[in-house]
Design goal:
By secondary structure, the protein is an alpha/beta fold. It has one domain. It is 37% helix and 17% strand. The protein contains 7 helices and 6 strands, in the order H-H-H-H-E-H-E-E-H-E-E-H-E. The strands form 2 sheets. A 4-stranded parallel beta sheet has the order 2-1-5-6, with helices on both faces. A two-stranded antiparallel sheet has the order 3-4. Helix 3 crosses helix 5. The longest helix has 21 residues. The protein is globular.
């Protein structure tokens, strides 16, 4: 499901079946999110999705996190797409080469114009699809704190990467 969810716009444009699988993944993830966090609770937070790995002008820019949140909670949600990347990079899931935190921070932008209203009563949810190292959450938290945001911050992830070499194994 995560692979379908992460399918880029070009793949979805070329392959109708893949586009349908992506839409189904978005709907499934939105339903799971609604079951885990009811609307009444979600509305107490301000939601800020992590930036996609592609810059907004890139044809492969994909706002899938925004689409999941809109599908889960509709327009009542305090959803602020404040993070973007100034330049496109390969997604961390796309291969072994990954940006380090300093490089990611250098290209991640925070739209402070979207911070004029205070966060909702519970604070801010930095929302991402897959937790691998926590680097994207840390980057976003650092940018928010540097901009003077003092609201409580939490990270929420749809999935986490399990490293095979560290996966739990039941003793024999």
């Amino acid at each position: 499901m995560i692979l379908n969810f992460k399918a880029g716009p070009a793949v979805c444009a070329r392959q109708g079946a893949r586009r349908r699988h992506k839409q189904q993944a978005i709907a499934t993830l939105a339903a799971a999110l609604r079951r885990a966090i009811p609307l009444s609770q979600a509305l107490r937070w301000t939601w800020m999705p992590v930036a996609p790995s592609k810059a907004p002008a890139d044809p492969e820019y994909d706002d899938r996190l925004v689409r999941v949140l809109r599908a889960a909670y509709g327009i009542e949600l305090d959803l602020r797409a404040v993070f973007t990347q100034a330049s496109s990079t390969p997604g961390d899931h796309a291969g072994p080469e990954r940006l380090d935190l300093a490089a990611l921070r250098a290209i991640t932008r925070l739209d402070t114009r979207l911070l004029h209203e205070p966060a909702r009563e519970q604070g801010i949810v930095v929302f991402d699809d897959v937790l691998t190292t926590g680097k994207h959450f840390i980057c976003c938290a650092q940018l928010l704190r540097a901009a003077g945001v003092r609201a409580p911050l939490i990270g929420l992830f749809l999935a986490r990467r399990v490293r095979r070499e560290r996966a739990y194994r039941r003793p024999a």
